Automatic annotation (TrEMBL):
SUPFAM superfamilies: UDP-Glycosyltransferase/glycogen phosphorylase. One of its GO terms (molecular function) is UDP-glucosyltransferase activity. It comes from the Eukaryota. The keyword Transferase applies. The keyword Cytoplasm does not apply. Its EC number is 2.4.1.-. It is an enzyme of class 2 (transferase). This is Glycosyltransferase. Keywords: Glycosyltransferase, Transferase. Belongs to the UDP-glycosyltransferase family.
């Protein structure tokens, strides 16, 4: 039986069950949501995961006063490597849809646990890739919302694809007389022009397109039939697109971020990580540092990473690079030649802590939404290099609309094309040393202040979360559903 908390003060609170998709990038913001709910005294929380992910989740939930329930992941699932319980363990993105569908095998355990929860569950919050949880919530009579870890902009652009099928007219070889790719003008937002690559990149390599399209349809239907969506964004960042969604698409979306600001401060350690000491020394020397991190899901070829290494060496700026996989070869003598000016880290790092460090003045990123929000929250401008999923949409939004980033271009202008060392060097120098870099740094500083205001008590994100709980949460009293206190007053 799942018991929310032993703390007396949680017994009269709504009891929210949270179940993220089994991938670190999807789990982390939902862990932050649990902390935010606890810190503001809004709800008791029960968090679901699997044994293979439990240690990571348990560590992240420390201090959130949340219960943790482990659902046993089935063994010997066709198409999934033995022992793999998270998307990071997949050998290719082609098996992503298979893995997402396989999570539905957890449904009996989830429903049994939800049925036994004490106090009874008031609300179920799940990742949209767990599309099957909508049926579980209906079976048990629990309101359900989807937690979207992508931008409102990207989600609206997905709706554009569904409505207008731009790929019926756009072709991969469409180019104008200057060699630029053909574009589709978004009818609802005529200032936005998207390419074939922007629309096809979400589905990864060609082998995954059909199963990913099928999966996308399943999650879209589940979201449409749910009670709403939580979006990890904030009013000052994406008000136009959240408002469009709420007025013209639906279901209701509540912007409650950036949730990375709910991450509790790290406990003082006996010894600082070596990378933190290195950054402290850079501050003492008055040096500005570029942070480089290119995501955890997309597999980047060794040859491409060597181009990055060569580009960083050519750029002649100080950098810290979180590299994966840890045994990757970055080229003969690279680390020795850049020693002192650059630091390659092959262990886990606290990305937000790095970005918040006063020496860090730029971020070369894959433009995954978690990373974008952490950069914005820390006030660090970005160089964006989208590779798959929602990343092309994010990059366009950051560069063209928010103007808080500069774009890294592949040699053939496709998402999966090569980025040369010359391009890496050029973009890094623009970001760290150029006039455009000064302008994007100014813009992101303004958004950083807005992000902090949004998450503060009484801020728009805090208010949105309280409104959602007030509208959706129910309690079970003596076996009967009881309206929330706000609903009683309205009645």
């Amino acid at each position: 039986m799942a018991v929310a908390s032993s703390s007396p003060e949680t017994h009269e609170l709504p009891h929210i069950a949270i179940f993220p998709f089994l991938a670190k990038g999807h789990t982390i913001p939902m862990i932050h949501l649990a902390h935010y709910l606890h810190r503001h005294g809004l709800a008791a929380v029960t968090f679901f995961t699997t044994p293979g992910n439990a240690a990571f989740v348990r560590d992240g939930l420390s201090g959130a006063d949340a219960a943790l329930v482990e659902l046993a992941f089935p063994a010997d699932v066709p198409g999934i490597p033995p022992g793999v319980e998270s998307a990071e363990g997949l050998t290719s993105m082609a098996s992503f849809a298979v893995f997402a569908d396989a999570t539905s095998l957890l449904r009996p355990q989830l429903e049994a646990s939800l049925a036994e929860m004490q106090p009874p569950a008031s609300l179920l919050v799940t990742d949209p890739f767990l599309y099957w949880t909508k049926a579980s919530a209906e079976t048990l009579g629990i309101p359900k919302v989807s937690f979207f870890g992508i931008s409102a902009f990207a989600h609206v652009m997905r709706e554009v694809r569904v409505r207008h099928d731009p790929c019926a007219t756009l072709k991969p070889d469409d180019v104008d007389e200057d060699g630029n790719p053909g574009t589709f003008t978004v009818p609802e937002f005529p200032h936005i022009k998207l390419t074939f690559e922007d629309f096809m990149a979400p589905f990864g390599d060609p082998a995954s397109i059909a199963p990913m399209m099928e999966l996308d349809g399943k999650l879209g239907k589940a979201v449409e039939e749910s009670q709403g969506m939580i979006i990890n964004t904030f009013h000052g960042l994406e008000a136009q697109y959240v408002d469009f969604w709420n007025q013209h698409v639906g279901p209701r979306a509540w912007p409650v971020g950036p949730l990375c600001l709910a991450q509790p401060a790290s406990a003082p350690a006996e010894a600082q990580p070596s990378w933190m000491e290195w950054l402290d020394n850079k501050t003492a020397d008055g040096r500005a540092v570029l942070y480089v991190a290119l995501g955890t899901l997309a597999a980047i070829p060794e040859s491409q990473l060597k181009e990055v290494a060569d580009g960083l060496e050519r750029a002649e700026v100080d950098f810290i690079w979180a590299v994966r996989p840890k045994n990757i070869d970055l080229g003969s003598g690279f680390e020795e030649r850049t020693k002192g000016r650059g630091l390659v880290v092959r262990e886990w790092v606290d990305q937000l802590e790095i970005l918040k460090h006063e020496s860090v003045r730029g971020f070369l990123s894959h433009s995954g939404w978690n990373s974008v929000l952490e950069g914005v929250a820390a006030g660090v401008p970005l160089a964006v290099w989208p590779m798959h999923a929602d990343q092309p949409f994010n990059a366009k939004f950051l560069v063209d609309e928010l103007k808080i980033a500069v774009r890294v271009q592949t040699s053939d202008r496709t998402i999966r094309g090569l980025v040369t060392s010359e391009e890496v060097s050029k973009v890094v120098r623009v970001l760290m040393l150029g006039e455009e870099g000064v302008e994007v740094a100014k813009n992101v500083a303004e958004l950083s202040a807005s992000a902090k205001e949004a998450m503060a008590e009484g801020g728009p994100s805090c208010k949105a979360l309280k409104d959602m709980i007030s509208e959706l949460c129910v309690k079970k009293v003596n076996g009967n559903l009881e309206e929330s206190q706000d609903e009683k007053v309205d009645a």
